[in-house]
Amino acid sequence: MGIKAHLDRDICKEALTSSLDNRTNMQQYHWLDSLPIATAIYQFDEQNIGLISQNKAFTIIMQSFNDLNVNEYPDIFYMICGMIENGQSQYSEYWHSEKFIPYRQLDINIARYNKVDNLFIISFFDKTSEETNRINLRREMMTDSLTGLSNRVGFEDKIEEKIKQDRKSAVKSHDKFAIIIWDMARFSHVNQFVGTMAGDELILTIASRLNSNALVNEFLARLNGNEFALFMQYDGPDDVVKDAAGRLKAAFDQPCQLADLEIQVECAISSAVGYAQKDNPMDILRHAQIALKKAKHSKNYELYTSDAMHNVKHRFSIETDLRRAIEGDELSLNYQPLIDLETGKLNGFEALVRWNDASRGSVSPVDFIPVAEESGLIIPLGRWVLKEAAKQLKQWDREFGSELPLKMSINMSAVQLVRDDFAYAVSDAMRNANISGDRITIELTESAFIEDPDNARKVMESLKALNTCLAMDDFGTGYSNLAYLQQLPIDVLKIDRSFVTDMIRDKDKYSIVSAVLSLANSLGMKTTAEGIETQELSQLLTGLGCSYGQGFYYAEPLNRQDACAYLLANKFKEKL
Ligand code: C2E
Ligand code: MG
Ligand code: MG
Q: pLDDT digit string (tens) for 199-237?
């Protein structure tokens, strides 16, 4: 066609604004005024285009080109040439008008109107408000509304962008970068006990303190409710990361004043470092998060190391196999006798879960129960243990021909208490096996009260309503707040074996055990000593007034058949 491909600025402007005289009768295009969008009709010949008619909205847009003195116009002539060359009847372009008209976003659409007269309809769609909404929404999505800091999405976006830019840039940037996380401990307690307004105030105070301790080239974000993170770049040894972690930790050192309360906030701190040229910032963020888990336990600053990743992978593989084992009914229970120290008779059994994996061999519950708790598998696992243990007790009743005067102790993890309808699960197991509540003891640890004491109390009350017995397991290893325990419906304190086993050699342990025994006594609670391995210990504890004993001296945890044999052998029959 030989059309000039591109028109310069003045020609574009003229083409858009000038009318072609007398070519077509403009009167017939009054309908343009009824259109809600800026529309005009142009006529095209091989050398030129000219305006035939336009509506008001179109005129206003054209006017704004003039008013703003823009120096580029949409090259309609060129676009129409392209349409004709390609045989298109319709053409749309996302026209980057903000380059020409600040804060305006126009899309242009051209359609062939009349082939004979070579008429084209040109419309401008004003997308400015949609675009502004999109930008605002994106900003909102990236910002934590309380503190104004970036949220997790914003943090990830910014650090990815920063690393990408540095890699492209000709100017050499820092070799390394680090992500540090501060996790405020027990923040949910503040919300719960002092209220969410106070919780917000606490977050704001910490955020502003962190901000004032951060350097200008460091970038701070609030990842979620109680986690803050910092991105920093550096060269040389990693000591600077630990220094920065310590510098910002100062934000937590001073107590925070909330109304008339002074709150001291503890925090766990972790970090992970990466190389700007090769490491993915999202991997480094994940590493920092893995190290944070460790920091929450160790209560120290933890820098991520690759064996932490190995541990995580190991945990995941345990989780996968454990899930399969639960679904495949591959778990079993062992039963460890509990002895009434005064009479020397069997009082009951503690059900202890066992996992014998085809490739791993026998896996200790000390290793897989924490994985089950973290993954939520403890819910189906715990329900299975409840059902199985209750069923076994009933089975022994049947085998011995009458209801045995025995209790079955079942361990309950803190996670079950929070996430399962545990009282329902217990009553379901009782109903299923047709045994009464007074034959079941639920063992729970002090950690069950830490997360949500009110809920813990409610669950315990519903368990008491079922007539079950409640035992505090591993007593002495947790918070050991006896005054608090006094207010809970606890029947038995099980003194942890770490105090019991060595109490003959270790005077301190001896004192602790005898103090716990007399305190429990005065509170009207029974006591069980765990980990009795010798006759001497058994006698000593009996003399100190301990109610029950459990340990290798009496019996190790026994499988179903051995436990049945134990029942038969232990003069138990005589009693029946
Ligand atoms: P636990 O509830 O305190 O159970 C007692 C643990 O001490 C058992 O370890 C038992 O084998 C061991 N033990 C008993 N007497 C002695 C002794 O004289 N000397 C020594 N050295 N150890 C003794 P096990 O079976 O390895 O269980 C470990 C922990 O795993 C349990 O501690 C309990 O916290 C948890 N666990 C076991 N089964 C379950 C379950 O079904 N559900 C839940 N949630 N946790 C369970
Ligand atoms: Mg136990
Ligand atoms: Mg225990």
A: 899 999 999 999 999 998 999 999 998 999 999 999 989
> 443 C-alpha to center of ligand 2: Å?
6
Q: Do domains 142-304 and 314-340+350-575 have the same CATH topology?
A: no
**Residue nearest ligand 1's atom 15 by CA:** 551
pTM over 0.90: no
What does the pLDDT look like over 171-208, one tens digit per residue? Answer: 888 989 999 999 998 887 788 777 888 889 999 999 99
Residues 6+ apart with CB under 8 A from 29: 41, 52, 53
What CATH class is the domain 3-132? alpha beta
Q: State whether the beta carbon of 442 lies less than 6 angstroms from ligand 1.
A: no
Q: Give the CATH class of 314-340+350-575.
A: alpha beta
Domain ranges of the chain: 3-132, 142-304, 314-340+350-575
Q: Is the CB of 411 under 6 A from ligand 1?
A: yes
| Mutation test residue for ligand 1: of 492, 530, 537, 548, the one with most atoms within 8 Å of CB | 530
Tell me which ligand sits closest to the C-alpha of residue 496.
3
Domain covering 142-304 assigned CATH 3.30.70.270 in the classification:
yes
